[in-house]
């Protein structure tokens, strides 16, 4: 089979550069385009040079349309607004859209779902094997324990992260809620400050830490009477997420249009 032709959007970003390296390193994929936002200072620069792997002959451009027309898939770790716009382009071009962007609103998600009627969309708040396994474990543990065990989710990320809680923390919260058979939005506690009163039975709490260069730490705590279970994942390098995204693109090739999750790619679905 010929190589899958991939585009990286947001190619000058932290994840964008890791994605360029992952596409070049993977077997069966070729980088055919690198997109950045209009006015970005990196436009015209070579994607490989920016990613620290030498010249690839792929200059960064803000003219997405012709690039989408010659690709099979797009890897997108950008911003919610950009991701929604790229989902429409990917749907028109009928190419796979791999979405790692977090902080999407309900309206953004509805627009991704609409795009997924025409093309394959794989979306996950975390593309690593470890976190997707962790989510499956959290669901099982939450199903096995009753509300005598209080669930708290703690995450820490680098100082430049703009959304909170992290997409991964939300995923883990959804997994815990699914295990318990409750709706997360009815039980989530996003912040605590001041005289909060005692903890409400069955709530799922979120704590967000930001600082330094932390790639991504997540802990799910089940705190019961006289004992505590803590399930933890530590991401050590962004290449982890980038390799997951390339794996998702290869999995998406030739598949029916629809909205899929990384759990589908990894065979961890229900
Ligand atoms: N699902 C997962 O496994 C992971 C998800 N993420 C998520 O990925 C996203 C990006 O993270 P990160 O790389 O750290 O962020 P960065 O800010 O470093 O990168 C985002 C890039 O997208 C660019 N961009 C913004 N708008 C557009 C546009 N319209 N067209 C093209 N490019 C655009 C930005 O340009 P500029 O800066 O010039 O605005 C920037 O270069 C976040 O939502 C993060 O949470 C991160 C890691 C793993
Ligand atoms: O912004 C990041 O850096 C990360 N974002 C994702 C999230 O919001 O969970 C995944 C990873 O933890 C890194």
UniProtKB/TrEMBL annotation:
* One GO MF term: NADP binding
Question: What's in the keyword line of the UniProt record?
Answer: Amino-acid biosynthesis, Cytoplasm, Diaminopimelate biosynthesis, Lysine biosynthesis, NAD, NADP, Oxidoreductase
Keyword check for Cytoplasm? yes
Query: Mostly located where?
Result: cytoplasm
Q: What are the catalytic residues?
A: 157 (proton donor/acceptor), 161 (proton donor)
Q: Which reaction does it catalyse?
A: (S)-2,3,4,5-tetrahydrodipicolinate + NADP(+) + H2O = (2S,4S)-4-hydroxy-2,3,4,5-tetrahydrodipicolinate + NADPH + H(+); (S)-2,3,4,5-tetrahydrodipicolinate + NAD(+) + H2O = (2S,4S)-4-hydroxy-2,3,4,5-tetrahydrodipicolinate + NADH + H(+)
Asked whether the UniProt record includes NADP among its keywords, one would answer yes
Q: Where in the cell is it found?
A: Cytoplasm
Top-level lineage group: Bacteria
Which amino acids does the record list as binding (S)-2,3,4,5-tetrahydrodipicolinate?
158, 167-168
One GO term describing the cellular component: cytosol
Q: What is its EC number?
A: 1.17.1.8
Enumerate the Gene Ontology biological process terms. diaminopimelate biosynthetic process; lysine biosynthetic process via diaminopimelate
Q: Where is the Dihydrodipicolinate reductase N-terminal domain?
A: 4-127
Domain Dihydrodipicolinate reductase C-terminal: from-to ranges: 130-266
Q: What biological function has been recorded for the protein in this entry?
A: Catalyzes the conversion of 4-hydroxy-tetrahydrodipicolinate (HTPA) to tetrahydrodipicolinate.
The family line of this record is:
Belongs to the DapB family.
Name the HAMAP family for this protein: DapB
Q: How does it assemble?
A: Homotetramer.
- Record NCBIfam families: dapB
UniProt-recorded name of the protein = 4-hydroxy-tetrahydrodipicolinate reductase
Q: Which organism is it from?
A: Tepidamorphus gemmatus
Q: What is the lineage of its organism?
A: Bacteria, Pseudomonadati, Pseudomonadota, Alphaproteobacteria, Hyphomicrobiales
